[in-house]
Amino acid sequence: MKKIGVLALQGAFVEHIALLRRLDVEAFPIRLPQELESLDGLIIPGGESSTIGKLMREYDLMAPLSGLCNEGFPIMGTCAGMILLAKRVSGLSLEPLGAMDLEVRRNAFGRQVDSFETDLEIPDIGEPPFHGVFIRAPFIERVGDGVAVLARLPNGTGVAARQGNMLAMAFHPELTDDLRLHSYFLSIVNGDKNQ
Ligand code: GLN
After folding, report:
1. pTM (predicted TM-score)
2. Is 77 in the pocket of ligand 1 (CB under 6 A)?
């Protein structure tokens, strides 16, 4: 059975673990560098990117995580997780991992609408649309070559992307009952040829 870790420094890691356990994988909370060994994939959850980023440093996780990203290890980041995977972030005072060639804006939707839900067309997972839960979410301002935007808001703003074996989304699939984005990530972990 594949082993998937969920970074458990702060934020919505419990929900990811619960959802992964409904799929056919073993899921573990990860806090220490040595716990990254022997995993097949990792999720960086939503929460506060400044807090998670600070704790990543305190727990000596920056170098091992960057190393994994460079090796093509499967990693999925949701919301704050997307912020931390990005190369450039506006509104974050610490350096993100810089693993994905993405420029994102933190807390991009402003105060009035800083939390909202909307259905998203995501061709890679097919119909029906995916219910996106956005909580003080970032959005994607620019993607580099080799990054595919997987989902957009009706106004064209990118809210999910894939680069190689890395997947990032501005919303929270772990707060829905829809397993499709986690299954999509697991198909990357399994190295399915059609992805
Ligand atoms: N606003 C948070 C941040 O900037 C992200 C919110 C979330 O993960 N739900 O880190």
Report:
1. 0.96
2. no
